[in-house]
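Support request, please re-run this one:
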Amino acid sequence: MIGLGAISDTDGVDPHLLRSFVAVARRRSFSAAARELGFTQSAVSQQVAALEADLGAVLLNRRPVTPTRAGARLLDHAVPLLLRLDAARADVARLAAPPSARVVVGASPLAVTALGPALADVRREHPDLVVTVRVLGRSALIREVATAAVDVGLADGAVAPSDSLPLPDAGPLRAVGVLERPLAVLLPPRHPLAGRAGLRLADLAAAGWIDAPDTAVPLGRLRTAAGAEGYRASVRYEGTDVGGLVALVGAGHGLAVLPDPTGAALSGVTAVPVTEPRLVHRVEAVHSPTLAGVPAALAAALTG
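Re-run finished. Output below.
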């Protein structure tokens, strides 16, 4: 046993200690975590030591700073637990907040195009509405919705037709489908497979790929969907600019799977539809059930 029984007791673990531990584990550095949290390095060290004493387990190796087996297990609990605490605070604040003429929308890079028609409808009804659109990576989007940093989120992913997106547990959020589109493999125009009418993902396992977790279909999802190993990354792309990803594909640095851009111009690449397995690019509107006023009207327009 590694002494994690106290995690199930909400009175047994101080959330402040958990936040310090998560920050150190994520940053792999006590000093970097201290800067992020606004504490001294000594204070963060003491907080982690206090948490270890409370749980009766060493959570972090010190040199280099990495989670122990117990620490890795605790991270699995702590990250969603802290998110739920932040979401609870945001939900209460949202209920107490007065109506606003401002709306903040968050969207992953491949979902932002779904916003246009619904936003136009709402702005016709509310001409003085001030809208902020934030393009966010997939990993950040749900957190921003749960903590009320954005009012409505547009999340996306590759799933079987009509399946819901596998969103992380971030409290009682509501997720409703907005649209589904076919997927395509983007290749350089002179690629040997560029003239095909369709492609099976399993046949591309040995190809070089661009790992773009916030813009393209993640490589891990391709492995799972195709039931095949491989999908080696030639380049990792950590941006949210789809145009930059397309340029890398066109220059021959690797392949990527995106929504089929049929009818749209993608300069310098060829898009070949994915024929197997049957997957679609799905966009869902995600928001709190307590959403009200103009943000709620926008959410309804997106899913209506």
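The chain is about 35% helix and 20% strand. The domain at 5-95 is CATH 1.10.10.10 (Arc Repressor Mutant, subunit A).
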